[in-house]
Recover the amino acids of this structure.
């Protein structure tokens, strides 16, 4: 599934590069993206014309921690191919508002062509959990508190980019808002595995509502969802 997603998305990147000098892409960081990012790094793409962003970051985590989404993407893709530019979010707890303003300015300067999303177990997109998701959010980037289900999703003692126990998971993060994600010309959601089955069931079957943030993808004119047999179990 990850390889198939990489084939489709790299094809879209190549077609956009025929129309534009540069392409702006926002990436998700999560174990669900592992196979996709590995395959994407091997694609024949002119990375020197692509500006890379990520959609969320923990606040108050040590800058060297593997759990930071910027560090994950650095190892999984950003250091593997020669991007024109890579824009990391800074989760310094003393500079939250300044960082929201800085990243907002960057995204407005580089309008998103492609956003590559995960779907959280609670149906969050980026870190827009149901209690903070706003389909009409006036902000581009904001500070959010993370709900219990989201924080529990980040716990996996066997995964080096996750946390060993919930007490270690940060309570707050910086995130692109739902409208900011939705501004992307093309949206690709990648959600494999049995832990995502309930979320995918809600995404496809429930009314479009902020209680299930990922349902908004059904209103995007150019959105595609990549799932596997396990995550499709409730369809």
């Amino acid at each position: 599934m990850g390889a198939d997603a990489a084939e489709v998305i790299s094809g879209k990147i190549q077609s956009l590069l025929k129309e534009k000098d540069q392409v702006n892409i926002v990436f998700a960081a999560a174990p669900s993206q592992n196979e996709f990012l590995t395959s994407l790094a091997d694609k024949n793409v002119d990375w020197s014309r692509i500006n890379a962003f990520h959609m969320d970051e923990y606040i108050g985590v040590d800058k060297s921690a593997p759990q930071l989404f910027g560090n994950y993407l650095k190892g999984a893709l950003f250091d593997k191919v020669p991007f024109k530019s890579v824009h990391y979010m800074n989760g310094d707890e003393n500079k939250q508002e300044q960082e929201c303003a800085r990243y907002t300015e960057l995204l407005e300067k580089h309008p998103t062509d492609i956003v590559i999303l995960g779907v959280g177990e609670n149906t969050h997109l980026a870190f827009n959990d149901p209690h903070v998701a706003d389909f009409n959010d006036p902000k581009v980037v904001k500070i959010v508190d993370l709900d219990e289900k989201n924080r529990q999703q980040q716990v996996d003692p066997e995964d080096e980019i996750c946390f060993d126990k919930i007490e270690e998971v940060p309570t707050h993060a910086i995130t692109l808002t739902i409208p900011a994600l939705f501004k992307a010309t093309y949206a690709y959601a990648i959600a494999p595995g049995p832990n995502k089955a309930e979320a995918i069931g809600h995404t496809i079957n429930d009314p479009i509502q902020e209680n299930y943030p990922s349902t908004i993808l059904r209103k995007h004119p150019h959105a595609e969802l990549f799932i596997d047999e396990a995550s499709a179990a409730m369809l």
